[in-house]
Amino acid sequence: MKQSFETIKQLVTDFKAQEAAYLSPGYQESQVRQDFIDKFFAALGWDVTHVQQRNPYEQEVHIENKVKMAGSSQRRADYAFFLSPNFRDPKFFVEAKKPSKNLANAEDYYQTIRYGWNAKTPLAVLTDFEEFHILDCRFKPDIDEAMNRKVESFHYSDYAVEDKFAHVYYLFSREAVAGGSIEKRAAELPKPRGKGGQKGLLKGGYQAVDEAFLEELDEYRITLAKAFKKANEKLEGEELTEAVQRTIDRLVFIRFLEDKGIEEKAIINLKGQKSAWKGFVNLCKRCEPKYNGLVFKPHRILDEITFATTEDKMFAEICSELADPGSPYDFNQIPISILGSIYERFLGKVVHATDKRVKVEEKPEVRKSGGVYYTPEYIVRYIVKETVGRQIEGKTPAEIAHLAFADIACGSGSFLIEVYAQLLDYHVRYYLANREKAKTDDLFERDGQLHLSLKKKKEILLNNIYGVDIDFQATEVTQLSLYLKLLEDATMSDAHQFGLFKETILPDLKNNIVCGNSLVGRDILDGSLFPNVDDSKLKPMNTGEVFPKVIKRGGFDGIVGNPPYIRIQTMNESSPESVKYLKDHFASAASGNYDIYVVFVERGISLLRWEGSLGFILPHKFFSAQYGEGLRRIVADGRFLDKVVHFGENQVFVGATTYTCLLFLSKRNNTEFRFAKVGDIETWEKDLKADEIVIEEKSISGTQWIFGDAGDERLFRRLESTNRNASEVFHIFVGTQTSADDVFVLENCEFGKSIVKGDSASLTQRMNVESEIVKRFLKGKDIRRYRPLHSSSVMICPYQIGDTEFNLIQETDLKRDFPKAHSYLELNKTKLMKREGGRFKGPNWYAFGYPKSMTLFSRPKIVVPDYNNTASFTIDANGHFFKTGYGLLPKDDRHSPKYLLALLNSKLLFWCLKRVSTALRGGYVRFWTKYTEQLPIHMIDFDDSSQRSKHDHLVGLVEQIMYSEETLSTAKTDAEKNRLELQCESLDRQIDEAVYELYGLTEEEIKIVEGDSRT
Question: With helix as H, strand as E and coil as C, how does 869-920 read?
Answer without folding.
Answer: CCCCCEEECCCCEECCEEEEEECCCCCCHHHHHHHHCCHHHHHHHHHHCCEC
